[in-house]
Design goal:
By secondary structure, the chain is mainly alpha-helical. Among the domains are: about 70 residues; about 60 residues, no CATH class. Helices cover about 55% and strands about 5% of the residues. The chain has eight helices and two strands. A two-stranded antiparallel ribbon has the order 1-2. A hairpin with a 2-residue loop joins strand 1 and strand 2. The chain is globular and about 55 Å long. The two termini are about 35 Å apart.
Amino acid sequence: MVSSETTSRIEPASLDEANAEILDLVAELSKESTRLASRLHPRSASHWADLVRVMNCYDSNLIEGHNTTPREIEQAIGGDWDRSEPRRNLRIEARAHIRCQRQIDALHGAGGLPEPTSLDFIVWLHRPFYEGTGEAMLTVRAGSRQLRMTPGVLRSHQEEDLTVGRHIPPSSTVVAEFIADFGARYTLSTITQRPE
């Protein structure tokens, strides 16, 4: 039996080895994507990028069990919603998601996107996502216990270990190890290398 506190808990999520056929398909997809992007008018490309961000946000929220609709996401982006309404935090989360995705896209467009699986990038991403969201979004509750998250800071103390709903996160003592393993396994340079 595998301990839940080992990095194997987040596996399998990629191939240990990619054969030439898979790598050729990845290269072809990348080439065709670049070709399509070069043929789009900049305003069309910007419109499509906004649409993809909304759909990514929608899908990501569903994975987390948050059923924010595309319309609610668009309203959150435009600030067109009642801040006292019951789904307020979902809209704040959606707006933060879109804001961070725009920052990532801008970094990529300027050629300055760091390795997206690195600890530094993950910590950086956590900071702007949660900054400005308010205390309600920074407070994690589990039964009678609660914890205030600090944007851009990893959990590192046992008292920060809370089970929320059905999600049992890794212990604070192994968070850094999990992220380091994630970074080592999923760095773009190792995924895209062709076997000799």
